[in-house]
Amino acid sequence: SKFLGKTSVIAKDTPAFIGNRIGIFGIMSLFHQVKELGLTIEEVDKLTGPVIGRPKSATFRTVDVVGLDTLVHVANGLYDNCPNDEAHDLFQLPEFIKKMMENQWLGSKTKQGFYKKEGKDILSLDLDTLEYRPNKKASFATLELTKTIDKPIDRFKVLVKGKDKAGDFYRKNFSAMFAYVSNRIPEISDELYKIDDAMKAGFGWENGPFEIWDAIGVVKAIEIMQNEGYQPAAWVNEMIASGSTSFYTVKNGATYFYDSASKSYVKKPGQESFIILDNIRETQKVWGNSDCTLFHLGDGILNLEFHSKMNTIGGGVLTGINKAIDLAEKEYHGLVIGNQGSNFTVGANIGMIFMMAVEQEYDELNMAIKLFQNTMMRCRYSSIPVVVAPHGMT
User: Fold this and answer.
1) Which class for 3: exposed (0-12), middle (13-18), buried (19 or more C-beta within 10 A)?
2) Which of 24, 253, 254, 262 has a C-alpha 20 to 30 A away from that of 135?
């Protein structure tokens, strides 16, 4: 994993290991909740996609791509092999899934599943009538409130307070998930971080369940769970009683997780070979503006991190790059331009350039392009090494 850039997670020998045990639980609980909450498949996909840091294919579209038969196979395996699981009944297939299996509506490979393409149109399955109908655009007031919040991890607090169907959905959904993952320790893993790592690496979630629980607030989330009729595992209550109120904590630039066996925080392994910007944000800041922040990584090396919308490059970032090189040339030894966002940068802030063009402000446009070019040249010809660390969209 050191050379392939892959995450490896050591799991115990339990049915479906970690990723599928938790992931299929999540999908099966949605299958059972969707009718109870009166939601359409488009609404569930809207609620369980990028807004909460999960792939665009969200839930039902993912099942179509993977194949319903594959999912059913794993769910049946869990139903048969985990008789003592407190959520055992959830792994039983609801009627509409049985019907879809009989009809061989397995998803993309049979040309129809929860969604069906007809010509240029995409139709959706109505789970009550089991007939296809035109796709309905889904929207929720609660989601509108999160539009200005860039990072999914910062949205959870707002989502669980929602006053509409979306709020109900998140409170039910996260309550069930938190109870379930807390009960899986030590059954499927002794350490909680392995569950988070497996969901992030295996299911493409931006944040694992324990990270989300922390983001809502462990105590606050337990109140929500109790309102929904769920209880966390006993070790979580013991953790809180001992005065520890989060699953993760940062000390001296390293992440520690709460270890339920030793009832103490233990350093998460594998952090020695790289620097996690989240962990030095508070202590190592040298300079910043609203679009970027400059940190000292140690050994005289600075790091410029972008945090503009989608990490676009506009005036603020260009100012930051110039400022960073100024400082590095005077007082430090080198500069890294890098970040741990989902994309390094999606490019120049085209919106700003477009507005200048529309308003025919050609002098300003020339200045902006010239500043961009000069800044890039400055990176190349500065008197200190400038290392750019691209990833994702660049």
Assistant:
1) exposed
2) 24
